[in-house]
């Protein structure tokens, strides 16, 4: 889903007293709380990568700078700004209205916060449905409303809890190793079957980066060298992580984040481990997909019954398999009839992954998730060391038993 509702910062002053939709209202409030003056990166010439080039240092650092000590939380020494995370969620979610409604619902469920909101914000219209109502300040400007809200301890408490729920329930499972980013965690038979389906659809060259599967390199060559840039080992990688099939919290978060566009029945192991949710990639590309270095954004042309796919790149350092790839570069997957009935990636799955990527980058939460990954890797190494130590002793004991049995002529008892 391409970004369609932008709160243009340069026009913010004209919006200070106007009625706004819930997503826009939360967006302008968080922008004031976090002291943000950032335009939408999708409007840059080179997209999100321009954010690293064109923004002055003060604005770059503001992406991850907490607005107050009580509107932040820490994860293994990394700090996440609650205002920046909420702003990103109500700006870049797959369905911003659904996420904004979820935030509003959590706020008014707390009686103390509800009383504060009723004194500061008025809802008009919507025919009884608050999700389609317009919000406006009871008096003064949105900047004054933001200032009053952030002074309330109960409001800060609910905002922090809501943001932390999204961080733990959606963002972390998408990036951590427990998220099942690759089909490598599947039984070999299932992974091999999916790989064959993707080869039938896309051929032996990655749609992203034009890397050829080295098993297809023969002499004399059957593939034109001009069709690819390098060779590698290609394997399936999931767009929506496999953990969504088993992690109830992640599955629930995805459903709210997508506003009902993706049902629970589509988040089963069988549906996730499908060509509609898979790409054929090299290992470093698979890591890049899971770490939100890049994503694939889809545009559905319903009039012509076709879907167009575009590469989205979020960082300047992309790794060798993405060198030369351009942000918004169009990608082509094989037509169903021409690909042994193997379907192209589901546009909703692609756009869900892209929306999560934008939230991670816009909020500055990626550093905290990287700290979690680093901690998990350290713990994994410690577990491995303990395992080696245990098996080392076990091997020594086994050797002693074997020598004793040999000495006693009882080899058959080993």
From TrEMBL:
It comes from the Eukaryota. This is HNH nuclease domain-containing protein.
């Amino acid at each position: 889903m391409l970004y369609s509702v932008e709160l243009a910062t340069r026009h913010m002053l004209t919006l200070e007293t106007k009625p706004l939709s819930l997503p826009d209202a939360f967006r302008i409030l968080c922008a004031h709380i976090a002291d943000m003056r950032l335009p939408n990166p999708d409007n840059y010439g080179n997209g999100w990568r321009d954010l690293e080039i064109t923004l002055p240092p003060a604005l770059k650092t503001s992406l991850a700078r907490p607005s107050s000590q009580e509107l932040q939380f820490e994860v293994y020494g990394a700090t996440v700004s609650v205002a920046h995370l909420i702003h990103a969620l109500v700006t870049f979610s797959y369905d911003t209205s659904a996420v904004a409604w979820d935030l509003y619902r959590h706020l008014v469920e707390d009686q103390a916060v509800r009383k504060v909101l009723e004194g500061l914000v008025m809802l008009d219209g919507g025919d009884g449905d608050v999700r389609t109502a317009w919000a406006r300040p009871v008096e003064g400007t949105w900047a004054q409303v933001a200032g009053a809200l952030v002074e309330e301890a109960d409001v800060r408490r609910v905002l922090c809890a809501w943001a932390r729920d999204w961080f733990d329930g959606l963002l972390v499972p998408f990036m951590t190793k427990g998220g099942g980013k690759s089909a490598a965690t599947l039984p070999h038979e299932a992974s091999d079957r999916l790989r064959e389906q993707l080869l039938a659809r896309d051929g032996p060259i990655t749609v992203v980066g034009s890397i050829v599967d080295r098993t297809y390199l023969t002499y004399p060559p059957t593939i034109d060298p001009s069709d690819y840039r390098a060779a590698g080992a290609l394997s399936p990688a999931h767009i929506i992580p496999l953990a969504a099939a088993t992690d109830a919290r992640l599955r629930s978060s995805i459903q709210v984040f997508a506003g009902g566009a993706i049902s629970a029945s589509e988040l089963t192991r069988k549906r996730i481990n499908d060509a509609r949710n898979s790409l054929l990639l090299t290992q470093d590309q698979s890591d890049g997909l899971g770490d939100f270095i890049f994503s694939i954004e889809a545009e559905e042309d319903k009039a012509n019954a076709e879907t167009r796919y575009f590469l989205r790149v979020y960082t300047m350092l992309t790794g060798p398999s993405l060198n030369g790839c351009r942000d918004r570069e169009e990608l082509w997957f094989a037509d169903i009839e021409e690909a042994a009935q193997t379907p192209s990636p589901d546009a909703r799955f692609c756009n869900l992954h892209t929306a999560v990527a934008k939230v991670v980058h816009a909020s500055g939460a990626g550093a905290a998730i990287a700290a979690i990954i680093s901690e998990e890797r350290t713990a994994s190494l410690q577990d491995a060391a303990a395992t080696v130590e245990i098996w080392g002793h076990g091997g020594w004991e086994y050797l002693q038993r074997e020598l004793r049995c040999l000495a006693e002529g009882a080899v058959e008892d080993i």
